[in-house]
Every structure is written in C-alpha cells, then in structure tokens.
Amino acid sequence: MVLTDPLTTIAVGSSESPARVYLAETLDGLYAPYALRTPVGKGPFPLILLAYGNGGGGLEWLETRLGTHGYIMDRLLEAGYACAWMRYRTEVELGFHDGGRLVVDRRQGMDLLNRSPLEFEDELAIVRHVAQLDDIDAERLGHVGVSHAGEMLFKLESHFPGTFRVGVACEPANHEFLHLTTDETVVINGETQLRNIERMVMRDPQRVRELIDEPLARERLAPVTLPVLVMGRDDDELQGIFRVTYDVMAEMGLAATWTTYDHPLHGYIFPVADESGVPMVDPVQERAISQVIEFLDAHLMSDRQVNPTPY
Questions:
Q1: CB-based contacts of 208: which residues, under 8 Å, 6+ apart?
Q2: How far apart, in whole angstroms, are the C-alpha atoms of residue 47 and residue 178?
Q3: For the chain, which residues make up each domain, given as ranges?
Q4: How far apart are CA 23 and CA 271, in angstroms?
Q5: How confident is the model at residue 304 (pLDDT cuts 50, 70, 90)?
Q6: pLDDT, mean over the chain
Q7: Mean pLDDT throughout 73-93?
Q8: Among 7-16, 29-38, 191-200, where is mean pLDDT lowest?
Q9: Are 120 and 156 in contact (CB under 8 A)?
Q10: pLDDT tens string 79-88
Q11: What is the third-level CATH fold of 8-300?
C-alpha cells in the first residue's frame, strides 16, 4: 500500500514551507520516514534528498533535525529545490561487502529475500515513494550526503544505477565501498566482536591506495556514471579515503569533481543552529554550500544560467 498522504505536518520556524512527513514502504514491507519541504509556489519541483551519517532515530530524529539543521534546507528552498531529510535503518557492519546484491524471489505468493535490505536500500524506497508525489519532478532528483551517507550514494548508484541525476558526497566514509584493509588503529570490541574504527587515521592518499582492493573498487564504481561532487575536509582523519574515491573515479573517466575545505565541523555543509535556533554559519560554510548549489544547478536546472565560482 502506497501512503501518499503525509503522516503529519511540522511547522519550521516562521517559514511558509512546513515539513510534510511521509512513510515510504521499504523493500521488506516496513516503513522509512522522510520530512519533505517544497518552495512556495506551484510545482513540480526538482528534489534534493539530504542524509547524514548512520541510520536509526526515526521520526524523533527527523523532528530534531528540522530544528537544528534547517539552514541547508532554507538555502535549497531559496534556490527552487524541494528537499527532504530522510531516515533509514542502522548501518550493518560490512553488510554491503558481505551481503552482496539483494535478490528478490517469491514464496507462497509473497516476496522472499536473500538478505535483509540495508540502509541504502531504504533510501531507494524513499526515492520511489517521493517520485510519486504530484509536486515532485521525478526526472530531477539529487542526493546530498555527509560521512556514511556519502558512502550510501556510491552503494546505491553501484547497485541501482540511474537512481539520481546528480550527487554530492561530503566526506564520504568509503572504507567499506573501497574494501579498505584496516590498520593497527582498528580494534575489535571484545563484547560485540564488531570493529571499532573511530581511531582510524587515513589522511595519506598513497597509503589508502595501497590498502584498498582497487580492482573491486573499480568494479563497484563502474556503474556510478552520474556527476558526483566529492568534498573533502583538509584535516579530516579520513581525507585520504575521500581523495582516493575521487582519484579512482577520475582515472576511470567518470563524472567526478573534487573540492576540499578547511573547517573544524564534520559535515560542514550542514550548519547547526544554536540553542535559540539561529544557524551558526561562517564564510567557509557559505562558500561550500554555494558550490553545492551551483553543482546541483548545473545538472538539474538546465534553464538556469550557471557561472561557476572559483573555490
């Protein structure tokens, strides 16, 4: 059953563009929420899906996010884009690498899966749902993701190419996607037997290049033919992973663009509001967000004159 009516509507400050919260049916019959805002006026509008980090949190996470991270939405709305924060299931350790492609069969008249869907497949379900809404242009969809959500873009387009027209991957934590062999800074949690990678340092692209499974990485990247803006962060511990992602794409002739900024905030393109609700945005973040919107415009707003700004 496709639920095309919003579950609820949430006011966002004094904005004329409230958030409509929808539930998208996932590939295993559960539901993933997203909070959609559209510009004032008549659609259909191009859509940018926003994602940050690991999953979980559900509706409460979305409501909080609208209050603390509304600045990026306001900028996109001003530029003529519909936009939505989305929530998806929690990341499964090496689920993409070990699980392989999702296979759907039938048993007793119902779907039978070879594994549970993963977080990036919840994003696919949201894409399919939002594309059915009358005020969304299903032919002009983009993704802006930070950290693990940047990696999700690559996973999604690798397994389901053509889902988006354009993507932005800010600080994409692509260690699983590139099949990076971890170093001595990674330890196993004795209680859970899962890896703790929080202290992993991969700043040097050459070192990262030596540790990835490059043939496998190239095989996974080959279907990722959409234009992707890969954004690094100068002092990030994983800067080498971000850069190598771009380097391999460029060497393969894929439509990759590289940029990097010096900023203390992980996820600097998603400014945070202070306790009174005022966005804390500095000039570096303004430049970075402007570059993101210019990149989206170049691929989603064919009728808009885009004059790229040097960064």
A1: 178, 180, 202, 240, 241, 243, 244
A2: 28
A3: 8-300
A4: 26
A5: low
A6: 93
A7: 97
A8: 191-200
A9: yes
A10: 999 999 999 9
A11: Rossmann fold (3.40.50)
- Residue-wise pLDDT for 137-149, tens only, equals 999 999 999 999 9
Given a cut of 70, whether residue 307 has pLDDT beyond it is: no
User: If you average pLDDT over residues 85-108, what whole number do you get?
Assistant: 94
pTM value? 0.94
φ/ψ of 203, rounded to 5, equals -80, -30
Contacts of 49 (CB under 8 A, 6+ apart): 34, 83, 84, 86, 123, 126, 127, 130, 141, 142, 143, 144
